[in-house]
Amino acid sequence: MNDAASPAPTAQAVAFGVLAVLGAVVFGTSFGYGILGDEGRVGPGLLPMVTGLLLLLLGGGQLLVRLRRTGGVTEPREPDAGVDVFGRTESQRVRQLWTVVVATPVAVLLVPLLGFLPALGVLVLFIAAVVERRPPLVALAIAAVAIAAGYGVFMEFLDVPLPTGAVGDLLGW
User: Fold this and answer.
1) CB-based burial of residue 117 (10 Å sphere; 0-12 exposed, 13-18 middle, 19+ buried)?
2) Dist CA 173 CA 132 (whole Å)
3) For 56, which of 23, 31, 151, 156 could close a Cys bridge (C-beta 3.0–4.6 Å)?
4) Cross-strand pairs, 36
5) Could you give the 3-state DSSP secondary structure of residue 80?
6) What's CA 53's distance to the chain center, in Å?
């Protein structure tokens, strides 16, 4: 694998450090919005709190990994060091990432037409079937679980009405 194609470990460490700090700021400011509302309902600060905490933990964890890699003696690279446990090369992972980055706004654009949950299902189905190349039944099962989880979180737990889209309006959802 060509080291020139991937960012330097120092640049990666800086990026993850910035993400960790951003997560800490979001986590800290979320308490000002209220974590719990009336009657123990979810308040407007819960989602930023969880998101900030996850960003802080994941960014901080990756920062520590990068800092440990840059310090000390560098180990000689093995020929397959750029291949992950699924056998994907660095370029394949980057291509998959960009495919998801492009597919996500397309799914967002589908929300007014299909509604939130169907658009989420289409996105997850696309990622599972096309990007991750899962068998069709497995991809459908993953999409169904994502739709059920989205419904459970937004409609049942948070009691947030979701956009039904033009199709949902036609069907009376």
Assistant:
1) buried
2) 32
3) 23
4) 42
5) coil
6) 14
Q: What is the pTM of this model?
A: 0.58
Tokens found for residue 144: 């169904």
- Are 118 and 167 contacting, i.e. CB atoms less than 8 angstroms apart? yes
- pLDDT tens for 52-98 read 898 899 889 988 988 887 664 444 455 556 788 878 888 888 888 88
Q: What stretches in the chain show pLDDT beneath 50?
A: 1-5, 72-76
Contacts of 58 by beta carbon, 8 Å cutoff, 6+ apart = 19, 23
Task: Give the number of residues written for the chain.
Answer: 173
Q: With H, G, I as helix, E, B as strand and everything else as coil, classify residue 156.
A: helix
Residue 52 near residue 25, CB atoms below 8 Å: yes
The rounded distance, in Å, linking the Cα atoms of 22 and 75 is 32
